[in-house]
């Protein structure tokens, strides 16, 4: 039995894309394999690590858990959509400056989680940072450098 393809349309990083895909294909695979947006990483494939996080209609979501069909009509921002004109976004630069980016597997999800957190809490407490990044696992930094990167990003980008 072959899987029937469905056509889905999604706006990714401000650009409309139409893709023919099996309906239960993971959004992660559509992003990486069909659209070649490889900044979104696969860590666990079970929604536990946050490496595959994207902003889906303004909410943080693990793309490994979302069937492509459920993303039809959605607005998605991936890590590629955070930077502009080929330059790192301030949040990305803060992660580099504070040493919050190590091997790079968790970094895209951490940066998107930070973006999402700072939109809601421009001056987050350490507890809010910890809660905002709770769905993201890192095996390299021990988290303190990541928390420092978020604090730096908040101070540089969001506080007036």
Number of domains: 2
Mean pLDDT: 93
Radius of gyration, Cα only, in angstroms?
16 Å
The biggest beta sheet is recorded as:
5 strands, mixed
How far apart the termini lie comes to: 59 Å
Secondary structural class = alpha+beta
CATH architecture of the largest domain: Roll
| E-strand count | 5
What is the CATH third-level topology name of the largest domain? Ubiquitin-like (UB roll)
Brief overview, please?
This protein has helices at residues 27-34, 90-97, 107-120, 126-132, 144-158, and strands at 6-12, 15-21, 53-56, 59-62, 75-77. The chain is of the alpha+beta class. The protein has a five-stranded mixed sheet with strand order 2-1-5-3-4, with helices on both faces.
Notes on the protein architecture:
The mean pLDDT is 93. 39% of the residues are buried. A 5-stranded mixed β-sheet has the order 2-1-5-3-4, with helices on both faces. It is globular. It has 2 domains: 6-81, Beta-grasp domain (Ubiquitin-like (UB roll), Roll), CATH 3.10.20.30; 90-158, DNA polymerase, domain 1. Helix 2 (90-97) packs across helix 5 (144-158) and helix 3 (107-120) packs across helix 5 (144-158). With 160 residues, it is α+β, with helices and mostly antiparallel strands. The protein has helices at 27-34, 90-97, 107-120, 126-132, 144-158; strands spanning 6-12, 15-21, 53-56, 59-62, 75-77. It is built from 5 helices and 5 strands, in the order E-E-H-E-E-E-H-H-H-H. A hairpin with a 2-residue loop joins strand 1 and strand 2 (15-21).
Key terms for this structure?
5 strands; DNA polymerase, domain 1; 2 domains; 5 helices; globular; five-stranded mixed beta sheet; alpha+beta; Ubiquitin-like (UB roll); single chain; 160 residues
